Description:
The protein is an alpha/beta fold. It has 2 domains: 186 residues, Spore Coat Polysaccharide Biosynthesis Protein SpsA, Chain A; 37 residues, no CATH class. It is built from 6 helices and 10 strands, in the order E-E-E-H-E-H-H-E-H-E-E-E-E-H-E-H. The strands form 3 sheets. It has a 6-stranded mixed β-sheet, with helices on both faces. A two-stranded antiparallel ribbon has the order 2-3. A hairpin with a 5-residue loop joins strand 7 and strand 8. The protein is globular and about 60 Å long. The two termini are 28 Å apart.
Amino acid sequence: MKILGVIPARGGSKGVPRKNIKLLAGKPLIAWTIEAALNSNLTRVVLSTEDEEIAQIARKLGVEVPFMRPPELAIDSANQIPGMQWVLNECEKTDGEYDAIMMLQPTAPMKISSDINSAIEMLEKNLSADAVISLTYPSEYPERMKYIDEEGVIIDPPFCEAYENQSRQELKPIYQKNGSIYLTRRSVLIEKNSFKGAKCLALIVPESRSINIDTPFQFMIADLLMKTHNWKTW
């Protein structure tokens, strides 16, 4: 398969300012995803940003930044799908049509090349599948989560446990996206405006490698783990 890998890295992060180039375990955050992508079986890897400083750092790390992302695709409220469609269209002007596109978010820095290759292999072997998305076991049980109404009263969600304090062994396994890998067939992304499509396969990644950095606390935890542990073997 001919697969385009895209690393989106905008400059306007709010939770952790300048997050994508902030040093994580001695390297800019984007470096970890760039390294994994360049050592994988992806056909081509590009980084998409509207920020010139991020672009310069990315190029020094060895990844292509062939064009700058339009500002309207880099605002806080911008959906990732139009951004990925735009990059795909720009790359296909010179490369010809791709079979699929993989979005690799740098905010999930503990991905490794074998994760990327496993997702590719899954899509290649399952011709009826539209996509592959990385999931992990949640650290908490969603069945035990609650809503709170305007008066501070606890409300059970529709998916709550069958009875109060139900044993975790009785709860049906549930997973959450870990933000690391989104591999989608070209036709699904372009024609259906979707990363997932109708039939999406799950690539299970260990919780120990599934930190998705949105807050300073999550950045601190990832930094500590990646500095002190051989996390790539987890």
